[in-house]
From TrEMBL:
GO MF annotations in UniProt: symporter activity
Transmembrane segments: 20-40, 91-109, 115-133, 145-165, 171-192, 204-227, 259-286, 307-324, 344-364, 371-391, 403-429, 441-459
Highest taxon of the lineage: Eukaryota
Lineage: Eukaryota, Metazoa, Ecdysozoa, Arthropoda, Hexapoda
Membrane topology per record: Multi-pass membrane protein
Organism of derivation: Aphis gossypii (Cotton aphid)
SUPFAM superfamilies on file: MFS general substrate transporter (SSF103473)
Protein name listed in UniProt: Major facilitator superfamily (MFS) profile domain-containing protein
């Protein structure tokens, strides 16, 4: 006997809704992640002594520290390229270790618990980084590693939250808006870091402010999460009856199988295609964030402050593209009449081609200019994002909404294991900062994207996977996201939110 409610409820407005406030929480979390992760690329250039073609802006400003620790000014850390590459990768190494942990916790106890722990831990450890760097290089490395471990707890909760708060017709716009926080955070941190590197306020400032300022801003985000972040609609004290009933009918959280189908998960070709695309995308984005600023300094002799401002241009365009995809994807799909799977594949292929084309333009141009590089990176990140926000990334909620948090943790863990070595591998390849060495770095990305483009075209999917649900009696009319399985939305007893 079906317990599905036949009464159709009109969609409550999105503006001012609890659905939007949840998406905004994830947006702020993505900003925090980007700021506290990506600032290190500029910070290391500001902290390290010039090596080879590197430049560093001298600044006599310092920040107060413990009495027995020597203060370090700009350009005083003796770190070679390999050391900088290892420090850059430390955050990602830690991130890998806890992505699955965050997914498992959010799947069992709700998303808010790991979400808040991650937010607090990320900020606290980031505030300790300047002190650690002054004490010893390895302590600085350890701090970034632990910081990455806290940040990794957020990977699973992101999707677990959305699995309970998004209907199919709002998935694209809310997901794209929320995850555009990554590019928005990068837009903020690159010019901010360049300016803070040169700051001198009554003798105080310099490289350490690149850590203190974004961490202080992030504290405001945590306060917002305390007020507006809830695991499921059942627990939200301010949700309207209309919005609750809308989510009750249109969010397809089906009954889970009694045992997590691990074998089916790891042999699912659509899920494997998702993970491969995610891995290639991260390899590309890590290279663009961590290594390409060095390219602009070493190959084009662009100073740190100018590099910070120039490098935010691609991320501004990436932010706009991500939100453009959010608003236009449903329109394009409805107008063309194509299935969700076909549309996702087309977006993915277009984005991959843009990434490949942009990098080829740098490889085959002998005398690249700064505007050529900025244009190429802009195409890479902005138009390449069609493969991400319009292509494979949102499909995790379509493949297995029941296990969104768990699979997000699993896929993020695997993708980061594959992509984390990117920064270090690139630093090994780039020894003399020659054009041929940089071309090798770019050829690796081209080969990866060529492979995943064809693999996703063949095996990618945006259809509900049967292994992710328990087969129940077939209802006459099912929810939008669960057409042949019963839905259960009364999750307040297993998704506690009173812990924070």
């Amino acid at each position: 006997m079906s317990n599905h409610v036949d009464l159709q409820v009109s969609k409550p407005k999105l503006w001012g809704s609890c659905r939007l406030s949840i998406a905004f929480c994830v947006f702020l979390a993505a900003i925090q992640m980007a700021m506290l992760r990506d600032n290190l690329g500029i910070a290391l250039l500001c902290m390290s002594k010039p090596v080879g073609n590197l430049t560093c802006e001298l600044n006599e400003a310092t920040m107060p520290t413990l009495p027995w620790i020597d203060r370090k000014q700009n350009c005083e850390f003796e770190w070679d390229s390999a050391t900088r590459g290892r420090i850059l990768g430390s955050f990602l190494y830690g991130y890998v270790l806890t992505t699955m942990v965050g997914g498992i916790i959010s799947n069992s106890y709700g998303a808010k618990l790991p979400f808040m722990v991650a937010g607090y831990g990320n900020v606290i450890i980031h505030l300790l980084c300047p002190l650690a760097a002054q004490v010893h290089t390895e302590l600085f490395f350890a701090c970034r590693l632990v910081q990455g471990m806290f940040a990794g707890l957020m990977a699973g909760p992101f999707f677990q939250l959305f699995s309970a708060w998004m209907s199919e017709d709002e998935a694209s716009i809310l997901l794209s808006f929320a995850f555009s926080g990554y590019s928005f955070g990068t837009i903020m941190i690159y010019p901010m870091s360049g300016a803070l590197c040169n700051s001198n306020i009554h003798g105080y400032g310099g490289w350490s402010l690149i850590f203190y300022v974004p961490a202080t801003i992030s504290i405001l985000f945590i306060l917002y999460w305390h007020l507006y972040l809830y695991d499921v609609p059942d627990n939200h004290p301010k949700i309207s009856p209309e919005e609750y009933e809308y989510l009750l009918q249109n969010v397809g959280i089906s009954a889970e199988p009694p045992v997590i189908p691990w074998l089916s998960i790891f042999t699912s070709l659509p899920f494997i295609a998702y993970v491969m695309c995610y891995s290639a995308f991260l390899w590309n984005i890590f290279t663009m964030m961590n290594n390409m600023p060095m390219f602009m300094q070493t190959m084009l002799s662009i100073p740190t402050n100018e590099s910070g401002y120039l490098y935010c241009i691609p991320f501004i365009l990436m932010f706009l593209t991500r939100n453009f995809n959010a608003t236009t994807y449903p329109i394009i799909r409805n107008c063309t009449g194509l299935s969700n799977t076909v549309c996702r594949k087309l977006y993915c292929c277009f984005g991959c081609i843009m990434v490949i084309t942009s990098l080829l333009s740098i490889i085959f141009e002998e005398n690249v200019t700064k505007w050529h590089v900025v244009a190429a990176i802009s195409i890479n990140l902005a138009l390449g994002d069609f493969a991400y926000s319009g292509g494979f990334f949102p499909t995790l909620l379509d493949l297995a909404p029941n296990y969104a948090g768990l699979l997000s943790g699993v896929s993020t863990f695997i993708a980061f294991v594959v992509a984390c070595p990117a920064t270090y591998v690139n630093s090994i390849i780039i020894k003399q900062n020659t054009k041929d060495e940089w071309n090798t770095v770019l050829w690796i990305i081209i080969i990866l994207f060529t492979f995943i483009m064809f693999f996703y075209l063949i095996f990618g999917s945006a259809k509900l996977q049967l292994w992710s649900v328990a087969k129940l009696e077939v209802p006459e009319r099912g929810p939008l996201r669960s057409t042949i399985y019963n839905a259960s939305r009364n999750m307040s007893t297993i998704r506690p939110s009173h812990l924070f």
